[in-house]
Specification:
13 helices; 0% strand; globular
């Protein structure tokens, strides 16, 4: 199957509407129909989920099933130090205890984005840059809100990086104004207040829109990767709605 026929077979995605295709079904279609070089790009996209699953595993939380590795495979990869680029094990090996690894987990994300942005092309490059930048914006917003030192918050980043420097130059102002392309993210952060659910839903909607806007060549692996990211976001929104529904039903029964 060509990119064209795979792409036109995929149902439209919309935040707030239950997707007509599951993540597992999408992966199955990709694995059956695309080339090995394309599958490597899909694997690299899912590797970011695997990294976040390491954090979940260390903290005893449920992992995201949409990564490349199951919980058992992830455990095994960390035990035998295989299945990830060497920098992952080097970064985690800097700290002895799980508590220290969790406390300094941003170091691993920093090196992931540094290494993978250099190697990526097309949508993957755009997406990894976007993921890194919005995470830095959120970190700076939280630091400003809590009165924390920006330099400490960004201690694992390269201080001469232009995006990082833009944050650090504001460290003595007591507030943070992100670049114009992330101004809406600050508005979401402020308007949502302490309601984590409301903040997550507003952020998911914003992220979906931003990924959708990334310039893509239609009927390409980049378009398929974009669809995969947006499907994850739609599923996340749906899962949050279902969790809220369960909480409401539980409250009614009590």
């Amino acid at each position: 199957m060509s990119y064209y026929f795979l792409e036109i077979s995929l149902p439209p995605l919309k935040i707030g509407a239950r997707p007509e295709i599951s993540f597992e079904e999408l992966v199955f279609r990709i694995e059956v129909n695309l080339r090995s070089s394309d599958l490597k790009k899909v694997g690299k996209l899912r590797e970011l989920i695997d990294l976040l699953n390491i954090r979940a595993l260390l903290s005893g939380q449920k992992i995201d099933h949409r990564g490349n590795l199951s919980e058992k495979e992830l455990d095994q990869a960390l035990l035998v130090k295989d299945g990830f680029p060497q920098y992952v094990f080097d970064s985690l090996g800097r700290w002895e205890t799980n508590s220290a690894k969790l406390q300094n987990f941003s170091a691993l994300l920093a090196v992931f984005f540094k290494e993978e942005v250099k190697k990526a092309k097309g949508f993957l490059k755009q997406y990894f840059i976007f993921e890194r930048e919005y995470r830095l914006v959120l970190a700076a917003l939280r630091a400003a809100q809590m009165g924390r030192d920006f330099a400490e918050t960004l201690q694992f980043e390269e201080l001469n990086d232009p995006f990082v420097a833009q944050i650090l130059v504001q460290k003595d102002t007591g507030r943070y104004e992100p670049p114009v392309e992330y101004a809406e993210l600050k508005e979401i952060f402020i308007s949502s207040g302490p309601d984590a659910g409301k903040q997550h839903k507003a952020f998911t909607e914003w992220k979906f829109s931003r990924v959708e806007e990334m310039g893509l060549k239609p009927f390409s692996i980049d378009a398929i990767l974009s669809y995969m990211v947006r499907l994850i976001l739609v599923e996340d929104w749906q899962a949050l709605n279902e969790e809220k529904g369960k909480e409401a039903l539980k409250a009614c029964a009590e």
